[in-house]
Amino acid sequence: MGESPFSAAIEAYTSAAKSGDTNAMNRLGILLGTRMDPPDLIEARHWWTTAANAGNTSAMNNLAILLATKTDPPDLIEARHWWTTAANAGNTSAMNNLAILLATKTDPPT
């Protein structure tokens, strides 16, 4: 087995992420969490959390998706927190995902 086809991108994003670039952190999370086979959800969560805590609303949305759909059991309370925070900051994807959560759960978490 050779290197991942994403090795160069992961290396570049990691370098930028370690320098504090929240967009790189978010993109690195996307590569690790959705494009790798198998996905590295622990590292993806680390980078999305770091970027989300720094105010990156796309990372907040992606972290919430991971929490709601990729953890066992789903962490809907934390997912709702991140979708709400991102939605309040104007992220329309988070607004949509928050609405789906609220509309499809009979007892949505508070």
Please supply descriptive tags for the structure shown above.
globular; mainly alpha; 110 residues; single chain
If you had to describe this structure to a student in words, what would you say it looks like?
The protein has helices at about 5-20, 20-35, 40-55, 55-70, 75-90, 90-105. With about 110 residues, it is mainly alpha-helical. The chain is globular, with a radius of gyration of 14 Å. The mean pLDDT is about 95.
Give a concise summary.
The protein contains 6 helices and no strands.
Strand segment count = 0
Order of helices and strands: HHHHHH
- Assembly type: single chain
Give the proportion of residues in helices.
Answer: over 70%
Shape call: globular
**What number is the mean pLDDT?**
94
Discrete helix count: 6
**How big is the Rg?**
14 Å
Largest sheet: none
Low-confidence stretches: none
Give the termini distance in whole angstroms: 46 Å
* Strand content bin: under 5%
Broad structural category: mainly alpha
Summarize the helices and strands and which ones pair or pack:
Elements: H1 7-18, H2 22-35, H3 41-53, H4 57-69, H5 76-88, H6 92-104
Helix pairs in contact: 1-2, 2-3, 2-4, 3-4, 4-5, 5-6
